């Protein structure tokens, strides 16, 4: 279950959030015993510090949470989460010191310290529970936490239990929760209904490829989300080495992220028409596997020369994007764990995104800054179009040379988005080292920033 706020209680321990530059004045206003305890514990108000101050009866009279200074906070996403993780189990309430403008982000970070992926291992660890701060829309923050936990759970689940059918079931469960509708195009029907690239990538697996189609809402602007759902990627016949294959259960991270974003949208009741398309496949190796050198024909009619079967994500996305474009949505967004080049460029935390519209980029960057969901704009650099144009087909799925890998992948996808207003996210979908509010494992990236920006982007 996703973490939620604790019920208000007179027994909740008050938490004083204290910045390092206000600590001395705060401490001087406290009784001598509180001063002595805080000093003995080495508390200075530095980011992430936490001290529980005991009362005479053995309970806690108060807790202190370090909030650091401006410079220190810029190096963290969830400042309060670091302190929350160090507090003893119990129920807490914010008594003072938390800036109102930071309440949503810091409360979300506190909730996310309670996330546990315990499907395969009993986890008895208890997190410090938080009463929702005064004036906070608790339901809205809990909804953000639930979306993040949904995405994390989907990515963290190993491919043995998260294949195309299980991803379909997860989408169906989400649809049922919010009164949405889903439909599926499965296996050989993909060929009959002209989704040849999705079928080709998934045909070598005994877990049938499929296109998942979720719809919600009947009025307002049309938003379509497309998420890469490669439930495991061996690399195909261009087989990945073992160390590169180890995390390939997360290659459906784009699908997990669009489902997380869809959950936020539906829970908030945004006045729009939402469509979510997920090409769900397993890129396996067997006799029917597609081969390097093959030339494939896409739904759009463009031919693609396969120079690397490990560049399969853009293939399945191409057919789904073409379907999305045929409906002429007001905004079309794709999310995918697409290229290692993006990780080399910006590392695991930032979400590179592409758009032709400067106003959309500015709106997204602004929302990212206040949602602790960092993004970075990358260019649809037109002179690189020639790099994805091979000699014997319209497009090349894996240009040689290795330069600009994320950009050329984005340019490839843009060929299938038609005239739609299009944004593409080349995410990592994984936190490689634990951080406050973000345990090692599956990660939601870019979705909260998008959710915050959508009212402005779509004039809701």
From TrEMBL:
Keyword terms of this UniProt record: Aminopeptidase, Hydrolase, Manganese, Protease
Domain Cytosol aminopeptidase: from-to ranges: 308-315
Tagged with keyword Protease: yes
One GO BP annotation of this record: proteolysis
One GO cellular component term noted in the UniProt record for this chain: cytoplasm
GO terms assigned for molecular function: manganese ion binding; metalloaminopeptidase activity
Keyword Glycoprotein (UniProt): no
CDD domains in UniProt: Peptidase_M17
Record-linked Pfam families: Peptidase_M17 (PF00883), Peptidase_M17_N_1 (PF21337)
Matching PROSITE patterns: CYTOSOL_AP
PANTHER family (UniProt xref): LEUCINE AMINOPEPTIDASE-RELATED (PTHR11963), PEPTIDASE B (PTHR11963:SF20)
Family: Belongs to the peptidase M17 family.
Entry protein name: Cytochrome C oxidase subunit II
């Amino acid at each position: 279950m996703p973490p939620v706020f604790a019920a208000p209680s007179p027994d909740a321990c008050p938490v004083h959030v204290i910045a390092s530059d206000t600590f001395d004045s705060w401490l001087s206003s406290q009784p001598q015993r509180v001063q002595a305890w805080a000093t003995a514990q080495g508390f200075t108000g530095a980011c992430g510090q936490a001290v529980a101050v005991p009362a005479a009866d053995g309970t806690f009279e108060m807790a202190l949470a370090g909030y650091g200074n401006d410079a220190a906070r810029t190096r963290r996403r969830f400042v309060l989460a670091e302190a929350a993780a160090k507090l003893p189990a119990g129920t807490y309430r914010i008594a003072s010191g938390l800036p109102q403008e930071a309440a949503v982000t810091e409360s979300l970070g506190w909730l996310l310290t309670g996330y546990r992926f315990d499907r395969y291992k009993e986890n008895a660890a208890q997190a410090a529970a938080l009463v929702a701060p005064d004036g906070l829309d608790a339901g809205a923050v809990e909804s953000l936490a639930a979306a993040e936990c949904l995405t994390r759970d989907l990515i963290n689940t190993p491919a043995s239990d998260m294949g195309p059918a299980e991803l379909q079931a997860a989408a169906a469960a989400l649809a049922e929760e919010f009164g949405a509708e889903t439909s599926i195009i499965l296996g050989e029907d993909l060929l009959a209904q002209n989704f040849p690239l999705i079928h080709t990538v998934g045909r070598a697996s005994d877990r049938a490829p499929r296109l998942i189609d979720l719809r919600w809402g009947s009025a307002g602007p049309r938003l379509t989300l497309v998420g890469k759902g490669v439930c495991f990627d061996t690399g195909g016949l261009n087989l990945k080495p073992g160390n590169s294959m180890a995390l390939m259960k997360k290659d459906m991270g784009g699908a997990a992220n669009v489902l997380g974003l869809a959950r936020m949208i539906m829970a908030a009741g945004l006045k729009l028409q939402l469509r979510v398309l997920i090409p769900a496949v397993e890129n396996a190796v067997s006799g029917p596997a597609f081969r390097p050198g093959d030339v494939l024909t896409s739904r759009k009619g463009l031919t693609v020369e396969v120079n690397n079967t490990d560049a399969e994500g853009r293939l399945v996305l191409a057919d789904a994007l073409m379907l999305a474009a045929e409906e002429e949505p007001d905004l079309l967004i794709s999310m995918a764990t697409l290229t290692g080049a993006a990780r080399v460029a910006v590392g695991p935390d930032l979400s590179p995104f592409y758009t032709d519209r400067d106003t959309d980029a500015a709106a997204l960057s602004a929302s990212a800054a206040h949602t602790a969901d960092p993004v970075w704009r990358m260019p649809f650099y037109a002179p690189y179009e020639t790099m994805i144009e091979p000699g014997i087909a319209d497009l090349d799925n894996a240009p040689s040379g290795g330069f600009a890998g994320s950009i050329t992948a984005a340019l490839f996808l843009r060929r299938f988005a038609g005239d739609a207003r299009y944004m593409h996210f080349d995410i990592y979908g994984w936190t490689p080292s634990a951080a406050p509010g973000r345990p090692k494992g599956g990660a939601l990236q870019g979705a909260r920033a998008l959710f915050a920006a959508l009212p402005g982007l779509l004039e809701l």
